[in-house]
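Archive entry. Fields below.
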Amino acid sequence: MSEIVHVALDAMGGDNAPGEIIKGAMDAISERSDIKVTLVGQEDVIKKELEQYTYPKERVLIRHASEMIEMAEPPVNAIRTKKDSSIVVGMNMVKQGEADAIVSAGSTGALLAGGQLLVGRIKGIERPPLAPLIPTTKGVSLLIDCGANVDARSSHLVQFAQMGSIYMEHVVGIKNPKVAIVNIGSEEEKGNALVKETYPLLKECPGINFIGSIEARDIPGGYADVIVCEAFVGNVILKLYEGLAGTLVSKIKEGLTSTPISTVGAMLAKPALKKTLKDFDASKYGGAPLLGCKGLVVKTHGSAKAMEVKNSIIQCVTFKQQDINGKIKENIIRKDEA
Amino acid sequence: MSEIVHVALDAMGGDNAPGEIIKGAMDAISERSDIKVTLVGQEDVIKKELEQYTYPKERVLIRHASEMIEMAEPPVNAIRTKKDSSIVVGMNMVKQGEADAIVSAGSTGALLAGGQLLVGRIKGIERPPLAPLIPTTKGVSLLIDCGANVDARSSHLVQFAQMGSIYMEHVVGIKNPKVAIVNIGSEEEKGNALVKETYPLLKECPGINFIGSIEARDIPGGYADVIVCEAFVGNVILKLYEGLAGTLVSKIKEGLTSTPISTVGAMLAKPALKKTLKDFDASKYGGAPLLGCKGLVVKTHGSAKAMEVKNSIIQCVTFKQQDINGKIKENIIRKDEA
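PREDICTED_STRUCTURE:
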C-alpha cells in the first residue's frame, strides 16, 4: 500500500464551512485509503458536524483552534497575531512535519503570507507562486502566478515556468506540458520590459517545453498548459475569468427564460447545457497550490463545496506521492547557479 | 444645420474590406446629413463596390491609395515606408486638417504608430491611449489604455482617467462617469508599484469622479464607466473578454445541440437568447478612439461589419461636434503644471 498522506484541513475557512468542508473530508477519506485528515478548527463545532458520519477514526483527527482569520484582515498581521487560528495552527503542523499539506478555503492573503512566513520557502526558490487551474476547452491550464507577488522579476518567472511544468506533468498528468508567457502579441519583440527580459530566458531554460507568447484571447482555447505571468496580470486573468463566465451564464439564463416559448426551450435544453458547462469547470481538479514551499499549501475557492474540497485533498496525495517538492529541489535553476 | 464632419475611411483595412466597410459608409451617409466620407484605398476596387449604391456624390469622395499595410507588418516601419497606403494617406488627410477623423479596421499597431508619428499628440498629452468600449451588464465601460504604451507611468494613467471621463461624458453620454483603476484588491494599499503610485494622484485629481479600485471580476458588472489601467493589463482584459466570450458561447451552442431534445429546446430558445447576447455587444457603440491626438483616430475591430463601421463614423461626428479635443486641451493636467 502507498504511504499515507496527512492533510491538515482548515475546517473553518470559506463560505460553506464547516459543513461542506467536512463533507469533502469524509468523501476523500472514503474514496481513498491512503489519506489521513486532521480537521483544524473549533472542536465542538467540528465534533457536532461529524456526528452525522461514520468514518475510520484513525484517519480523521481533530485539532482545536480557537480563532479564525477573517477575509478582510490584513494577512501578515493576522498570521502574526492570531496564533491560535485554524490557518496558523494548520500551517504549523506542516512546518513541523506533522502534516504533509494544508488545504484551506479561507483568506488567500493569509495563506500566501503564512506559506512564506510559517511554512517557509524551499532553498533557492525566490518566490512561491499561487497557481490555480483554469478551465479551457481542452481541459485545464495552470495559471502561474496569481498570488500577491506583484512587481516580479524575470528570474521569478523562470522558476514559475519550471515549477508549473513539474506540477502539470506529475500532478495533473500532462506529458511534456507546453509553457507560454502571457503577452500582448505573439511576436518575440512584443511586450513590456518584464516580458521582453523573460522571453529569452524561457527560451534557453532547460527542461521546459516553451512555446512562446500567448495572447489572452487564446487562453480559453487551452493552447498552453502552463501560463506564466506576473501576479498582477495573473490575478486580473483569474478574476476576469470568474466574473465574465458568471455574467455570461446569467445573461444566457435571462435570455433563455425571457419569453414563454424560450422557457420551454430552456427546459428541454437544460440537462445537455448543464453537462457542457460542467466540463468548463476547474473545481473538479481541486485547489490552487502555493508552489515552492517546504510543505504543500493549497487554496480552494472561498465558495468551495464538498467536491472541490475532496479533490483538493486528493491532489495533496498525488503531490506527496509524486515527490513534487523533491523534483522542484532537483530541477529548479537557482539564482546562485544561473 | 450642424457643421459637416469629414471622415477619412480606410476602405481596405479589416477582414470584411471593402464590402462591409463601404456598406457602413453608405449607411452612415444615409442616416445622417452632417457626414462626409472620403473612402481611401484602391480607386478601381472602391468604384466597383460603389456601383451598387445610390448616394449623394458630394458627401462620398474617393482618395486613391495604391498600397495596403498588412496586419503582420512591423507598424513603425510600415508607416514610414508605405507612404501610399490607405492608413498613411488617411492619416495625412487628418494631419493636414483636410479630414476631421480617420476610421480604420486595419492594423492596430499601424494606427497607433501613425496616430503618434503622423497625426501627432495634443500639446501636453504624454501618451495617446487606445480606449475601446467593452460590454457590461449595464451598458458599456471605457477600457483605457489598450494600446501599445507598455510600461506606463502614473502621470500617463492620470491623463487617461481625465481623457476617458471627457469621452464617456460627452460622446457616450454618461453623466459624471465613475472612474476606477484596475487592481488586485479593493483596498487602497493593494496593488503593484504603478497602481500604488497612481491611486493617490487619481484621488486628488480634479474634475473626475474617482471611485477607487476595481477588481477584474467586477468589470463585466459595469461598476465603473472609465476603467483605467496600463496598456499591457488593458490588452489582457480586452483580449480575454473576446476570447472567453467566444469560447463560452460556442460551448453553450455545443451543449444546446448535443442531444435531439436539447436541439428542439435550442430552436425554441434561440430568438430570445440571441437578443440577450446582442445586448452584451459593444459593436453598436462603434470603435476604439485613440485619444489625445490632434485629430481623431478610430480603430474598429478587424472583423467589423457595416453596423460597427457606421457607428464608428457617427462616433466621429459626436466627437467633433462636442469638441472633445478642445475639452481635452482645456482640462488635462499637463506635466509642466502638475
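CURATOR_NOTE: The mean pLDDT of chain B is 91.
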